[in-house]
Amino acid sequence: MLTYTFPQNLNKPMYLYLYENIKKDIINQTLKPNEKLPSKRTFAKNLDVSIITVENAYNQLLLEGFIYAIEKKGYYVSSLNFPNKPKQYTAIINESNEEYYLIDLKTNSVGEHFPYSTYSKLTRQVLSNQDGSLLTRPPQIGCIQLRQAISKHLYDFNGMNVPPNQIIIGAGSEYLYNLLIQLLGHDVIYALEDPGHQSISKVYDINHIHYHYIPLDKYGIQLEPLQQSSAQIVHISPAHHFPTGITMPIQRRLDLLKWANDHQGYIIEDDYDSEFRLRGKPLSPLYQIDQHDRVIYMNTFSKTLSPSFRMSYMILPQLLMQLFHQKLGFYACSVSSFEQIVVAEFINQGYFEKHINRMRHYYKLLRDDLLSALKNSDIYQDITIKEENSGLHFLLEYHKDISDQQIKEKAKSIGLNISCLSDFYHQPQDLHTLIINYSGLSRDNISLAIQLLTKLIK
Question: SS3 string of the chain?
Fold first, then answer.
C-alpha cells in the first residue's frame, strides 16, 4: 500500500503535501505509468486522513495530467514520456556574506547624512497629492516630471542645456549600459580606460562585446593608442577619473571630440561624482562643448543621495534618441513612477541643491581632518597623497617593499576594508598605492582609521 508520513509541524494543507509527494514519485518514476492508485477511502484510512484530503490531492493531480481516472475502476498514473529519469541534485547557491570591518575605506556610503525627514515629508506629499496617474506605467524614457527636474538641475549646476526629451531614466548605470549596447549594436568595438571601473568591462563581457583597454597618461586617456585600436565608442570619466583621480584638461577633451567626429564614433561620458569636486567650481562636462552630437552623458543619484537609489540617467544625442524610440521603444521604464516623482519633487523644491552643498561642505571637512591626521601620523614620511581635490577618494602611495596582495591580506586581518589602485588595471601589477574612499567615514572614527593605516603600513 502506498504510504506517506505527515510531519507534525506541517505548515501547509494536508492535501497539498499529499499531492506534492505523489507528484514527486510520478516524476521520479517510483510510481510506474498506468499503475493503479489506492481508492480514496482505502488511501484515507491507511494514511489516517479524511477522504476529502485524498480527493483534493487526486483532483489536483488530475487537473495537471499526472493521473487519469476510469469510471468505476479508479485512478491510474498517467503514461508520461520522460526522456530520462530526473537526476537528484541539490543546487548550490553561494550567498555573499557581508564581512564586518572596523573601518571601511572602500565602499561608497551616505549613512546618517541622508535627509530622512525631508524625504519622508515629500513621500507623504506625493502620495496625498497624486491621483491614479501615480500607479500608471511611466513612459519608457521616464516620467516627464523627473526629466524636467534633471534638465533644470543640470542647467543651474553647470550650465548644461539639455531638452527633457533627450533624457532616459534607468535603474542604475549597469542597466543603462546594457541599453546602450543594444542601441549601438554588438558588432561595434568599444574602448575602456586602463585603469577603470571593473563593472563596465563585466557588462561588456557578458554581452560578448569586443573592447580594447587604452592606457592613461597624466591628462587622461591617450589619443594615439585610441586611434590605433579601431574603436568606435570610448568610455571616459573626464571630470574625475576613477580610480586615478585625474581631471582631463580642455585640450585633451577637444582632441577626443575631434576623434569622435572624424571616426563617426561616440564618447560615453561618465560624470559619476562631479557634484563633489572640493576645490573650485564644477568642471564643464564634455557634453557641453560637443558641437557634433557625439557625446552620451551619464550620471547617477547613487553618489549624491545613496547607493541604494538604483536610479541613473543618460542623455542621448538627437539622432541616437530617435534610433532609441525606433529600436528600443518597446521597453518599459525600469524605475517606478512613484520613486521618480518623489526625486523630482526633491529637486524642484530645492532640497537636492541644499543636500549637495551640505554634503560637499561635510566631505571637505572630513577630508581635511583625515589629511591633517595623516600629516601628523607616524607614517607621513612613508606615504605620498595624490589627487585629493577632485572627489570622494584620493590616492595614498606607500614607500614600502610589500606587494599589493600582501597589503590587502594584512588589511583584512586587522579589520580594514580597502582597495589598491592595481585592482583596476586589466593586467596585475604592484603599484604600492591605496585608494582611500572616505565617504563612509565619520569624523569620530578618523583616529581609528589612522591607527589601522599606521598598523598596515608600518
Answer: CCCCCCCCCCCCCHHHHHHHHHHHHHHCCCCCCCCECCCHHHHHHHHCCCHHHHHHHHHHHHHHCCEEEECCCEEEECCCCCCCCCCCCCCCCCCCCCCCCCEECCCCCCHHHCCHHHHHHHHHHHHHHCCHHHHCCCCCCCCHHHHHHHHHHHHHHHCCCCCHHHEEEECCHHHHHHHHHHHHCCCCEEEEEECCCHHHHHHHHHCCCEEEEEEEECCEECHHHHHHCCCCEEEECCCCCCCCCCCCCHHHHHHHHHHHHHCCCEEEEECCCHHHCCCCCCCCCHHHHCCCCCEEEEEECCCCCCCCCCCEEEECCHHHHHHHHHHHCCCCCCCCHHHHHHHHHHHHCCHHHHHHHHHHHHHHHHHHHHHHHHHCCCCHHHEEEECCCCCCEEEEEECCCCCHHHHHHHHHHCCEECEEHHHHCCCCCCCCEEEEECCCCCHHHHHHHHHHHHHHHC
